[in-house]
Amino acid sequence: MSVERRGHSCVVVRAAGTLVIDPGAWSDTAGALDGADAVLVTHEHPDHVDAGAVVASGLPVWGPAPVVDLLAAAGAAADRLHPVADGDKITPAGVPVRVLGEWHEPIHPDAPRFANVGYLVADRVLHPGDAYVVPDGPTVDLAFVPVSGPWLRISDVVDWVRRVRPRRVVPVHDALASSAGVTLALQWVERLCKVEIVDPGGTVPVVWEES
Predict the structure, then answer these.
(1) Which residues, 6 or more positions from 77, have their beta carbon under 8 angstroms from its beta carbon?
(2) What local confidence, expressed as pLDDT, does residue 138 receive?
(3) Are strands 118-121 and 38-40 parallel, antiparallel or unpaired?
(4) How many other C-beta atoms can be found within 10 angstroms of the C-beta atom of residue 106?
(5) Nearest CA-CA partner of 70 in 24, 112, 37, 106
(6) For residue range 24-35, what is the model confidence (pLDDT) as tens digits?
(7) Exposed, middle or buried, 83 (CB in 10 Å: 0-12/13-18/19+)?
(8) 88: Cβ contacts below 8 Å, ≥ 6 apart
(9) In 10 A of CB 158, how many CB atoms?
(10) Which is nearest to 125 in space by CA: 153, 94, 98, 163?
């Protein structure tokens, strides 16, 4: 299995089949969807799901109910849409995935809460969306770690990485930050969590064996 980031929070996971997680409007969505077998969406925000591009791809999609409703309204065929919730175990394109969590992290007490699920692929690769979901079970080999956003504090990110204890992390959710800001955030994560930061610019193999 291998993973590749395609901008902001969009990642491609290649295993038995090819999964695209969060092909949003701030990512290389067209490139990510080309040749894919299935799409997983964490939540309805446009930086995580480009509804027009996803519908046009004709690919089957898994996501929380608001995402399913959004894509249905955009013209997606009903038989392509699969609602998911916390605790579900799914196998899109033959790849085992566990669904984790329920809510997007709060942006402000006066702002609405949004549904958000994370995805744990093959018990080894974790994409949390915009939430600090923590899986149980085997050690996560690689976690995609948000580094910038209106809901995010780096102290919360550090605490989350310490709870998940991944072997390696790849930064995501960085479109709102400068390169200097991303570098600073990653320095704190690396220093305080003692975890390897992986360059997101290419394909990253995933470790299967236990340490």
Answers:
(1) none
(2) 84
(3) unpaired
(4) 11
(5) 24
(6) 999 999 999 999
(7) middle
(8) 98, 99
(9) 18
(10) 98
